[in-house]
């Protein structure tokens, strides 16, 4: 039994026939967050989530936080390159999980691709960069004493729901629900990393001076402003030449063709599925589905 969380209930049992993983509702045992809601997570994330709470931080660490499908992938590359003096060669040749690992998913990748286990995170060279989809109550206890930098990115909930539906369907074989059923479960906080609104409010209401808030919409509509904000926050100069190179690097086609930052390092699946995931865009979603999502607001 973990000292950092307790399992409240099973949301969905494991089903080998349907290739569905065990989905659980857990709650932090930290008294400081006793009034915070539960978290829905897969059982294979529990080890990483548990270790995250006791993870040792340094003041020059950078934590990228955000709900799933909110733009964290692009932000990982932007943050890492700005922080590492625009080392594009390394960014193209070292897989992202070895430069900017995901806290809760890192242990699981050992099963999938043979990457070394979670303990290696402690040995990463500084300044270290980490990503997490976990809500504030599950972040390292040292956060409030060490005060590393946090960048939190959010996205319009309607777009999050649509993107989540197809992502979970394609990546985790969540094929048993239609969109309306998925939406209902999302609103009832029975989908991975829900509840969504409390995820946002937990960070928005955080009394923490070393945090930068960004939105997916800003990053996509005004990439120059987003780069400038991140550069200033990280206390790094961003010269015009590097900014233009970074903008080109972050374009969809560029990232799709870069094996160091696409999904090939995380999971083994067919080239056809990879292409389908990469090409899945909001414009492909029917207007009918988009109208249904408006109910989330």
TrEMBL record:
Listed A to Z, the keywords are: Transferase
- Pfam families linked to this entry: Sulfotransfer_1
Q: Name one GO molecular function term.
A: sulfotransferase activity
Transferase recorded as keyword = yes
Give the residue spans that cross the bilayer.
none
Give every Sulfotransferase domain span: 60-266
Keyword Nucleotide-binding annotated = no
Which InterPro entries does its entry note?
A: P-loop_NTPase, Sulfotransferase_dom
The entry assigns this protein to a family as follows: Belongs to the sulfotransferase 1 family.
Q: What is this protein called?
A: Sulfotransferase domain-containing protein
Organism (species): Polypedilum vanderplanki (Sleeping chironomid midge)
């Amino acid at each position: 039994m973990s000292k950092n969380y307790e399992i409240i209930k099973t949301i969905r049992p494991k089903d080998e026939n349907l290739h569905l993983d065990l989905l659980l509702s857990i709650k932090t045992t930290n008294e400081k967050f006793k009034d915070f809601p539960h978290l829905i997570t897969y059982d294979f994330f529990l080890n990483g989530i548990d270790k995250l709470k006791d993870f040792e931080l340094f003041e020059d660490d950078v934590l990228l936080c955000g709900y799933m499908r909110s733009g964290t992938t692009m932000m990982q590359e932007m943050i890492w390159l700005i922080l590492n003096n625009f080392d594009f060669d390394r960014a193209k040749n070292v897989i992202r999980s070895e430069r900017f690992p995901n806290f809760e998913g890192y242990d699981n990748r050992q099963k999938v691709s043979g990457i070394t286990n979670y303990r290696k995170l402690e040995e990463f060279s500084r300044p270290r960069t980490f990503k997490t989809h976990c809500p504030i109550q599950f972040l390292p206890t040292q956060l409030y004493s060490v005060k590393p930098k946090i960048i939190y990115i959010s996205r319009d909930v309607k777009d999050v729901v649509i993107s989540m539906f197809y992502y979970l369907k394609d990546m985790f074989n969540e094929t048993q629900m239609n969109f309306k059923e998925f939406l209902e479960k999302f609103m009832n906080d029975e989908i991975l990393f829900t509840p969504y609104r409390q995820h946002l409010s937990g960070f928005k209401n955080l009394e923490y001076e070393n945090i930068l808030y960004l939105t997916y919409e800003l990053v996509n509509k005004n990439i120059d402003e987003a780069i400038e904000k991140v550069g200033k926050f990280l206390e790094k100069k961003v010269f015009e030449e590097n900014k233009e190179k970074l903008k080109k690097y972050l374009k969809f086609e560029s990232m799709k063709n870069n094996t160091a930052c696409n999904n090939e390092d995380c999971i083994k699946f067919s080239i056809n599925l990879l292409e389908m995931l990469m090409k899945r865009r909001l414009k492909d979603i029917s207007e009918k589905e988009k109208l249904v999502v408006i109910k989330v607001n």
